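Encode chain A's predicted structure.
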Amino acid sequence: MTSKKTTLGRVNADFIDKRLFPAIVKLLDTILQSLTQMRTISIVDDNPDLASAVDARFAFTNSRRCVYLAQCYAAVKKYGEALALLQHSTIHVREAVSSLSLSESDIIKNANASFFPLNADDIKEVESAITSDNSQLKRDWFAYNGGSVNADPTTYKKPLFFNIALNYVELDMDRLQQRAGKPPVAAPSSSIKGAQARTESVPEKKPTPKAKAEEHVEPTPEPKPQARGGLSNLLGGWWNKGY
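Encoded structure for chain A:
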């Protein structure tokens, strides 16, 4: 059975139909079933090097299966399950490397057989896919519902980040420059003198004297009523003088 090299990673998987991943998982399940039956054969069980080669391919297939199965869960927004599968995939990769290290050489690879060739580049490809998918899934999960397991994504709001540390704390730049091994930057004296000159040029407002504000205002005299004129007044005054 020959193995066709496929491309792993969510970056390339975005351009692939998501229904392809479950089909690949089924094919890998069939390969795992065949390797399990091969492991029980007496000729394999009696040869430690051959048994280690079969165990390495079993663990490597399990690792690839977990990667594709994680992409199936990621397609339906189940990021927690997908990340857990990637952790299992990492464990299976370590098991494959450990199984290959038990023997001095890979019997299946040295025999130039067309059955399941396994190279170091294949293992590195799976490891890089796990690393990239792990970071991408965490970003997608945070953008979906903030990384919560039971939160409703429709009610989730992204948190706002404010850099308010320097608004209330006086930063000692001279000390930081000293610790960084740089000479402290002196404050420009021209700008300080200019600010002082502008402050001194502003005229000071003097308070208005209270006595000037409260000047004495003389009351206006009321007009005297005018005497009634006419002949009656004239005769009345003359008659009074006669008597």
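Residues 1-7 have pLDDT under 50 and may be disordered.
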